[in-house]
Amino acid sequence: MVFFAVITAGVAGLIFYAAKPTAPHNVPTGSGPSATRPARSTVVKLPTRTSATPSTTATPGPTYAPPGSTFSVSGTHKQITVNCDDCSVSVSGVSNTVDIVGNCDTLTVSGVENTVTVEAARTIGASGFDNKVTYHSGEPEVSKSGDNNTVEQG
Fold first, then answer.
1. Is residue 14 part of a domain?
2. Is 69 left (phi over 0), alpha (psi -120 to 50) or beta?
3. Compositional bias of type Low complexity: which residue ranges (predicted)?
């Protein structure tokens, strides 16, 4: 029985091998300038790739920090606006730019070359190197450590 199956499979293979191509008679199978194009072609649409990341050109609105909470900004080269309502804000990292709208209880800045602007704060602390804090109103209690940190009214 196995012998018969092998012979049948071999004969079927020879028939398929010897068969002519299944291209229509009016379509040339060669290539080059003398070949004409088929009358109909198939176009396969590939799915488009979409990105889940937001555009960097859009300017997001301020982030709200409720009273009594602590809001932290950390990382490098971030630019953010915080709407502060008697909360604490902590900024750490390198070259961040933070604008704080409203009154803060405590503002703490640490790291290197951070720039922070705040309307008003009860206390401001700056540590690290080359950080700049500008407050617009009030007389905050200021503490500084590190090198070349500035806290000034402006």
1. no
2. beta
3. 47-65
Domains identified in the chain, total number: 1
Structural domain contains residue 11: no
pLDDT averaged over the chain?
79
Between 39-43, 56-60, 105-109, 124-128, the lowest mean confidence (pLDDT) is in: 56-60
**Is 46 inside a domain boundary?**
no
Q: How far apart are CA 135 and CA 142, in angstroms?
A: 11
39 or 115, higher pLDDT: 115
Residue where the block lists tokens 């704080």? 100
Q: Is residue 87 part of a domain?
A: yes
Tell me the pTM.
0.60
